[in-house]
C-alpha cells in the first residue's frame, strides 16, 4: 500500500539560495555567465515594474482589473526564457513575465484588462496563446496542440515543445486532471508548469490538495518535480530540461514552482481578510529579484552603473506603460459583432445591420451623442 | 413589520443567515465563501458564526461543488452552492442538468434534493470576460430545475429563504450589478408568508403595453416606462423564470394588447422566445402587435468597454416599445 | 451523377471517409471510434485505413475530447469529435460553450477552429436513460456555434463534409433512430456544389399550413402531412438549426398563414420557441393562428417503455395541426 | 524527480490463488470458516446465474439492455459482503453483485434494463444508490454523502462508511478526479472501488491510463492498492480494512480490483471486433468462482450435496428471474410526469392535465386503442 498522507516537506530543486549563492545541481546544468544573469535580472526588474504600473493604472481607473505577478517573477522569467521560439505557451491570466519573454507588448497585455478586447495579441505571432480565465481550460488546449505537434512529426532535438501555465487552485479542476491524463496516455510533448503561489484567491493550498502538487504526475504515469519558484536559475534549468525531454519525444512533465503570491489575487481582492501579513513578510525575505542582485554583486558581475541602468530602463518602461495604456483606443460599437463567425452568418449579419441602423438613427437625432 | 435599509447583496446575506439559523441542515459551499465571504461578500460573516462544517470553502472545481452538494443532499443536508460568476457555471453543467435536475424523477420521488445554486449573473460592472453572462435559458430548458431571480432587496431577502426551503433544486440568479442597490426590507414574518417565489409582480401599473423584465433589467424597464410619457406602460417583474407565472403575464397582456420582453441574455433561444411563443398562443386575439424582444446580441459578451452597447438600455427598450406601437 | 443506396449511418461514414481522403488534416476522435468503429459504427473502417494518428480512441472524458480538439485545431487540424450519446455531451459543455464557441471572437479572428462535434441524438431506439435526448436548444442559444442536423442519407453524406469544410465550429446532430433508413445518395460532385448546409428544404409542398421539422421528426412530419387528407400541408426540413434559414420559413408561412413546429426536445425554451417568436414578429399579419409547437414534455426523457408517448408522433402532430385550424 | 513511467507490474494483494490455495496476508486478516466461504460461493454462483438469465432475457427481447458482470463476481461479492448495513454504496451500472449483497431484488434490477423505470429501488431502503450511467458522476455523490456523514458525527468504530464503484474507464473522467481530491482534502470516509476489468467498451486500459490505477491515489494524498479482483477473499479483506479506516476517520482509500470483463460490454456490444479471444481464454483460467470451489473441495468444506444444492437454488432463481421479468408492469403514460418536482409546478401540472385530456380524447374515439 502506497501511503502518502504524511505531509513531509518534499525535495525542492534550488540553484540559487535566498542569499544569492549559486549551488550547482547534478541533474540540472546551468551556466550563470555574467551576460545571462544580467539579462535575467533585467527581465525580472522590468516585468515587476510593468506589473506595478498596471496595478497603479487600475487604481486610477484606467484598467478594469489587473492580476499582479508580484513574487512570481522568477518562475515566469525562468520558464519563459527556457522556451525556444518554435515552442508554444498556453498561459492562464497572470503570466505577464512569460508574455514578456514571448515578445507580447505591455500594450497588448493592458488591452484585455482595460476592457477594449477579450484577447489582445496574435497567438501565432508570439507562439503565446491568449490569456485564459476559466481555470484549467488551457491545459487541455495545450495537450491537444502537443498532440498536433506529434502528428506533424515535429519532435526531435530541435523539435517543438508545448508549455502550459496554471495555479495551485487549477489542480483541483477536472479539466487539468483530464489534461494530465491525455498527455500521459498520448505521451504528448507538453510541460505542465504549475505556479503554486499557495493561494487560490482566499483559499490556501491545503484546501486544494492534500499531497504536494508535483506528486500528482506520478499518479498519471509521468514525472513531476518541485522547484524553488523564486529561483530564476532553477526555474530556467528545470523547465529547459523538461522542454527538451518533451521535444525529444519523452513525454510530459509536471513542474511545481513553489512560490508565493506577494500581492492581492487581483486588484479587486483584499487579502487582509484571509491571510496574516507575517506570511507575506516571510516570503519577502525569499524575494526572487533580491537574490539575483545578491548573486551579481557577490560575483562581481554587475556594478552600480548596471543597476542604475536597469532602474532607468524601468522608469522609462513605466512611463511608456502609462502613456500607452491611456492611448488604447476604445472599440467601436459594431465590434461587438466582429469575428463571431469565420463565414457569413445570415442571422448575425442581419442583426449587425439592424444595430447599425439603430445607431445611425441617433446620429440623425442627437448628432455625435452616441 | 420591522423594516431595515439593506443593499440587495446584504439582503441575501441576511436571508442566508436566517435560513442557517432556522435549519441546522442548511450548508453554504463554494469557492472563497468562507473566510473571504465570497468575492461579492454575500456570505460575509457566516464562516465566523457557523464554522467550517457549515460554510465550506471547496476546492476550485464547480462539478465537484454541485456533485458533492448532491451527495450532501442525499444525506439530508440543504446545500446552498455559490458559483463565483455566471461564466464559471459550465464545468458543473453535467452534474446540474444530468444529475441534480433528474434524480428526483429517476428515483420516482425517493430522493429529494433541495440544492440551491446561487449565481451572480449579468453584466454592467465592467468586468473581464466570463464575468457578465446571463445563462438563464440553459436552465429554463432543463426540466427538474426551478429558476428564480430577484430585482430588489426585499425579494432577495425572502426568495433566498424560499429557495432554500423548497424541496426542489433551485437556480438562484443574483443580478450582480444590483448588489449595491438599497431599499427597505421587512424582515418580520416568515418565508412561507411572503409572496411566493413562483409569483410574478406587477412592478408598475399601465394600460397601453406590457413590459416584462426580470433581475437586473427590472430597474431599466421601470426607467423606460417612466421615460415614455406618451404611453402608459405596465412593468411585470417575472421573479420566477421556471416556471413562469403566466397568469399574471396573460392577464396584463390581455389588458394592454402589447408585449415587450427585455433581458440581457442573447435574444436567440433566450427566455424571451419562450414567453413570446406562449403569450402569442394564449393571447392571440388580444395582441395588437407581435411580441417584441429586446436583449443581448447573439454574440459572446463583449469586452467591458462595449457592454453599454450590448446591454439593453432605456433607449433600446423604448425602441422596442416603438416597434410594438408601429404595428 | 452516380447514385448509391446507403443508410443514413453509412452515408455519414462515406462522407467522413471522403473528407479524410480530401484533406490530411481531418482527424476523427472520440470514445471507441477506432477499432470498434463507434457504438453505431459510423466511423467503421476509418481506423483500419487511416491509422491511429488520424482516428483517435480518446480516454473516457468528454471535456478532454473537445478541449484537446481545440488544441489540435489551433495547430491546424480539423478534428471531428464523436460524443457517444446526446446525454454524455454535458461534461464537455464548458469547453464547448466557453472555449470553442468564443475563441474566434476572443482572438479577433486570429484563431480559426474548424471543429465538428458529432452527436447521435434523439429517442426512439428503446435505450436506457441519457441515450435519447435532444439538446439542440443549448447549442442554438450559444453564439459562435453552428448547429445542423440531417434527415436523409443524401444530406448526411454532403452535410458532414460541409460541416468539416466549414471554418466555424459545427455541432452535427445525427438522428440516431434514422441511422438505418436507406435512400439513394448521389456521391458525384463536390460538397461546395451540394445544397449549402445552411439552407432549409421544402420537403413537401402544400398550401394550407406549414409544418417545420428537422432531424428525426422530418419523417414523422411527412407521414402526418400524408395522413391529413383534409389539408394541404407543406413540410419544411430545417437542416440548419443555427442559423435558421428564415427566408424559406417565412416564404412558406406567408403563403400558408399557419405554422406548426415539431421537435423531440422539451417544448419549453426549445428551438420551437425561437421559431415561433421570430415567425410571429416577421409574419404577424400573415398568421391566421398562433404558431403551434408540438414537442417533448418538460420532463426528463422517460424510461423507454414510455417513449412512444413522449415523442411527438403522427397523432400529436395532427392534434397540433387541428389546434392551428381551430383558430 | 519521481518517475513512474516504467510499467513494471505492481504488487497485487491475493489471498486465494487461482488453484484455490489460501495464502494469509500479514496486513489483511481473513478467516475462511466453512460457513463463511460456503456463503460466498453461493453468492457468486447465484449472481452469475442472475446475470446469465438477464443476458438471455435481453436476447429474447424482454430487456432493452443488460450490462453483464461476468468475471467480476468476486470483486463485487467480496466488497459487497464487506459492507455494514449502515454503510452507503454508490454503484455504476454493472454492480449486480453488490446490489445482491444489499438486498436489491432481481426484479428491481431488471426494471431499469427493461425500460419500465429509470431508477428501480429505494436507495435508502438498501443503502444502495441508484445505478448511475453517466461515467464518474456517482463518485462525487459518494464523496458528498461522506462529507455529510462527517457532519453527522457518524464516524467511529461502528460508524458509517461510504463506498463507490466505477470502472477503469471512469478514471479518465474529470469528475472522478475531482472526487478523489474532494475526498482527500476533506478526509471524507469514502472508499473508491475501481473494478479494472481492463476494458472500457472497446478501449483497453492503456488508452485510459499510463500508470497503474491504484497509484492515482498517492497523487491526491491518500492510500491506494491493487487487489486480485478475481479473489473474493482478498476483495473482502481489503475492502473491510478500507471501510474500517474510513469509518474511524482515517479518510479515503482507492482500491483497484484487477479483474476482467469476460463478456461483452453490454448486450449491444460485439467484442470480437476489438479483442482477441485468447485473452478471454487466459482469464477463464482465473475464474473467480472456480477457485472458491477448489478451495472448498481441497479443504473438505463442501461436498457434492452442497454444490448440487447451490445449483438447484440457482435453477430456481433463474426461473424466478424469467417469470418476474415478464411480469414487470409497464408504466402508465402519465407516469412521464411523475415526481419531476417535489412541489406543485404550475406549468408542468397544466401540461400533464392537457396530455391526460389528449389521451382521453382517443379513448372516446378508439376505445382502448391507447
Ligand atoms: C472555472 C473557474 N472557476 C472560478 C474562477 C474564479 N477564479 C479566478 S482566479 C481563481 C483562483 C485561481 O487560483 P490558482 O489556480 O491558484 O491561480 P492564481 O490566481 O493563484 O494564479 C478563481 C477561483 C475561474 N476563473 N474559473
Ligand atoms: C460521460 C459518459 N460518457 C460516455 C458513456 C458511454 N459509456 C458507457 S460505459 C462506457 C465505458 C465504461 O468503461 P469503464 O469505466 O471501464 O466501466 P465498465 O463498463 O468496464 O464496467 C462508456 C464509454 C457514458 N456512459 N458516460
Ligand atoms: Mg494560486
Ligand atoms: Mg472497464
TrEMBL record, chains A, D:
This is Pyruvate dehydrogenase. GO terms for biological process: branched-chain amino acid catabolic process. It comes from the Bacteria. Its cofactor is thiamine diphosphate. The lineage of its organism: Bacteria, Bacillati, Actinomycetota, Actinomycetes, Streptosporangiales. InterPro entries: Alpha-ketoacid_DH_E1_comp, DH_E1, PdhA/BkdA, THDP-binding. Keywords: Oxidoreductase, Pyruvate, Thiamine pyrophosphate. Residues 44-316 form the Dehydrogenase E1 component domain. GO terms for molecular function: magnesium ion binding; oxidoreductase activity, acting on the aldehyde or oxo group of donors, disulfide as acceptor. Signal peptide: none annotated.
UniProtKB/TrEMBL annotation, chains B, C:
It comes from Thermobifida cellulosilytica TB100. It comes from the Bacteria. This is 3-methyl-2-oxobutanoate dehydrogenase (2-methylpropanoyl-transferring). Its cofactor is thiamine diphosphate. CDD domains: TPP_PYR_E1-PDHc-beta_like. It is an enzyme of class 1 (oxidoreductase). Keywords: Oxidoreductase. SMART domains: Transket_pyr. PANTHER family: 2-OXOISOVALERATE DEHYDROGENASE SUBUNIT BETA, MITOCHONDRIAL (PTHR42980:SF1), 2-OXOISOVALERATE DEHYDROGENASE SUBUNIT BETA-RELATED (PTHR42980).
Amino acid at each position: 500500500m502506497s501511503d502518502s498522507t504524511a505531509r513531509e516537506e518534499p525535495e525542492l530543486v534550488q540553484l540559487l539560495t535566498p542569499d544569492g549563492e549559486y549551488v550547482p545541481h547534478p541533474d540540472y546544468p546551468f551556466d550563470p555567465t555574467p551576460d545571462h544573469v544580467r539579462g535575467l535580472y533585467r527581465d525580472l526588474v522590468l516585468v515587476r515594474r510593468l506589473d506595478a504600473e498596471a496595478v497603479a493604472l487600475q487604481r486610477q481607473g484606467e484598467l478594469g482589473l489587473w492580476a499582479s505577478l508580484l513574487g512570481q517573477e522568477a518562475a515566469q522569467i525562468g520558464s519563459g526564457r527556457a522556451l525556444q521560439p518554435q515552442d508554444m505557451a498556453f498561459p492562464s491570466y497572470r503570466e505577464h513575465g512569460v508574455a514578456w519573454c514571448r515578445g507580447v507588448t505591455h500594450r497588448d497585455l493592458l488591452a484585455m484588462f482595460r476592457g477594449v478586447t477579450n484577447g489582445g495579441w496574435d497567438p501565432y505571432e508570439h507562439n503565446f496563446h491568449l490569456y485564459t480565465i476559466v481555470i484549467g481550460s488551457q491545459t487541455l488546449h495545450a495537450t491537444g496542440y502537443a498532440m498536433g505537434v506529434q502528428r506533424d512529426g515535429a519532435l526531435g532535438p530541435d523539435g517543438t515543445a508545448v508549455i502550459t501555465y496554471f495555479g495551485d487552485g487549477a489542480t483541483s479542476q477536472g479539466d487539468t486532471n483530464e489534461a494530465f491524463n491525455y498527455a500521459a496516455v498520448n505521451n504528448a510533448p507538453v510541460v505542465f508548469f504549475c505556479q503554486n503561489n499557495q493561494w487560490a484567491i482566499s483559499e490556501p493550498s491545503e484546501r486544494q490538495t492534500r499531497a504536494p502538487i508535483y506528486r500528482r504526475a506520478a499518479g498519471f504515469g509521468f514525472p513531476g518535480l518541485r522547484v524553488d519558484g523564486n529561483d530564476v536559475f532553477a526555474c530556467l534549468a528545470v523547465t529547459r530540461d523538461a522542454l527538451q525531454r518533451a521535444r525529444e519525444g519523452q513525454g510530459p512533465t509536471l513542474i511545481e514552482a513553489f512560490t508565493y503570491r506577494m500581492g492581492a489575487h487581483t486588484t479587486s481582492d483584499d487579502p487582509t481578510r484571509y491571510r496574516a501579513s507575517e506570511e507575506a513578510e516571510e516570503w519577502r525575505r525569499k524575494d526572487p529579484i533580491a537574490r539575483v542582485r545578491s548573486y551579481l554583486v557577490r560575483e562581481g558581475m554587475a556594478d552600480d552603473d548596471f543597476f542604475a541602468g536597469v532602474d532607468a530602463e524601468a522608469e522609462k518602461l513605466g512611463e511608456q506603460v502609462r502613456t500607452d495604456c491611456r492611448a488604447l483606443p476604445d472599440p467601436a460599437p459594431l465590434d461587438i459583432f466582429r469575428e463571431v463567425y469565420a463565414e457569413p452568418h445570415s442571422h448575425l449579419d442581419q442583426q449587425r445591420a439592424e444595430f447599425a441602423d439603430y445607431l445611425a438613427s441617433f446620429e440623425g437625432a442627437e448628432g455625435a451623442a452616441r | 413589520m420591522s423594516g431595515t435599509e439593506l443593499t440587495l447583496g446584504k439582503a441575501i446575506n441576511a436571508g442566508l443567515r436566517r435560513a442557517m439559523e432556522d435549519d441546522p441542515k442548511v450548508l453554504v459551499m463554494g469557492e472563497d465563501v468562507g473566510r473571504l465571504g465570497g468575492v461579492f461578500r454575500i456570505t460575509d460573516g457566516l464562516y465566523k458564526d457557523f464554522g467550517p462544517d457549515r460554510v465550506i470553502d471547496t476546492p476550485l472545481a464547480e462539478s465537484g461543488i454541485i456533485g458533492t452538494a448532491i451527495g450532501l443532499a442525499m444525506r439530508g443536508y440543504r446545500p446552498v452552492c455559490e458559483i463565483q460568476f455566471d461564466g464559471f457555471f459550465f464545468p458543473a453543467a453535467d452534474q446540474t442538468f444530468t444529475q441534480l435536475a433528474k434524480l428526483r424523477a429517476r428515483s420516482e420521488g425517493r430522493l429529494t434534493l433541495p440544492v440551491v445554486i446561487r449565481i451572480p449573473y449579468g453584466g454592467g460592472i465592467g468586468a473581464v470576460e466570463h464575468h457578465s453572462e446571463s445563462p438563464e435559458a440553459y436552465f429554463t430548458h432543463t426540466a427538474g430545475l426551478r429558476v428564480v431571480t430577484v430585482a430588489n432587496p426585499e425579494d432577495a431577502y425572502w426568495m433566498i429563504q424560499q429557495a432554500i426551503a423548497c424541496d426542489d433544486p433551485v437556480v438562484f440568479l443574483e443580478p450582480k450589478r444590483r448588489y449595491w442597490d438599497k431599499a427597505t426590507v421587512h424582515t418580520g414574518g416568515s418565508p412561507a408568508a411572503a409572496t411566493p417565489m413562483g409569483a410574478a409582480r406587477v412592478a408598475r401599473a399601465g394600460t397601453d403595453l406590457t413590459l416584462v423584465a426580470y433581475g437586473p433589467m427590472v430597474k431599466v424597464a421601470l426607467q423606460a416606462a417612466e421615460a415614455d410619457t406618451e404611453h402608459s406602460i405596465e412593468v411585470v417583474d417575472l421573479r420566477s423564470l421556471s416556471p413562469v407565472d403566466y397568469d399574471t403575464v396573460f392577464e396584463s397582456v390581455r389588458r394592454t394588447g402589447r408585449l415587450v420582453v427585455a433581458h440581457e441574455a442573447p435574444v436567440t433561444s433566450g427566455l424571451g422566445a419562450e414567453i413570446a411563443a406562449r403569450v402569442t398562443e394564449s393571447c392571440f386575439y388580444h395582441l395588437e402587435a407581435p411580441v417584441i424582444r429586446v436583449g443581448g446580441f447573439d454574440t459572446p459578451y463583449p469586452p467591458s468597454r462595449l457592454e453599454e452597447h450590448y446591454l439593453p438600455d432605456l433607449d433600446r427598450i423604448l425602441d422596442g416599445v416603438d416597434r410594438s406601437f408601429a404595428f
